[in-house]
Design brief:
Elements lengths: L1 H6 L8 H5 L54 H30 L4 H32 L3 H4 L10
């Protein structure tokens, strides 16, 4: 053991630092002189990624849309555009058929649009009500479910 210890510069080969592998700090600096890496101010509500955890956050922004290089028109992208246009025309034709079928069944497009508009308004009002119930539950320290009977609401509402 003394021969191994002498080979290692007087260090004990069974010390925890040697068992874990190399330490990122130089062996020459005592632990008191090694300063931890500086971090920016802590901002409530924001998360910061730990260094080394995600390399995808460090690179320059890359758009998910392919770009044509130096303004060249690519034949493949032109074909793709024609295909997209064709698919949109097919979808339009399919929707026109559905509208014709609904009209033949006695539905009025204006009535349907009005009904859809009223459903949107109802959902917006319901969302506001749910938000208010949630805030009231927090103030009272109870669950939203516990407030339903007090306001005459059913769990399916």
């Amino acid at each position: 053991m003394k021969a191994v210890s002498a080979h290692l510069g007087g260090r004990d080969p069974t010390s925890p630092a040697d068992l874990r592998g190399r330490s990122p700090a130089p062996d020459l600096d005592p632990p008191a002189l090694q300063t931890p890496p500086k971090r920016g101010p802590w901002t409530p509500g924001l998360r910061r990624t730990q260094p080394g955890l995600s390399k995808s956050c460090r690179g320059a922004f890359r758009s998910p849309r392919p770009s044509s290089k130096s303004g060249q028109v690519d034949g493949a992208s032109e074909d793709s555009l024609h295909l997209d246009i064709q698919k949109l025309k097919e979808k339009r034709d399919m929707l026109d058929k559905e509208i014709s079928q609904l009209i033949s069944e006695g539905y009025n497009v204006d009535e349907l649009e009005d009904h859809i508009s009223q459903l949107h308004e109802y959902n917006d009002i319901k969302d506001v009500g749910q938000m208010l119930l949630g805030k009231l539950a927090v103030v009272r320290g109870v669950t939203t479910k516990e407030l339903y009977p007090e306001f005459g609401l059913d769990m399916s509402d």
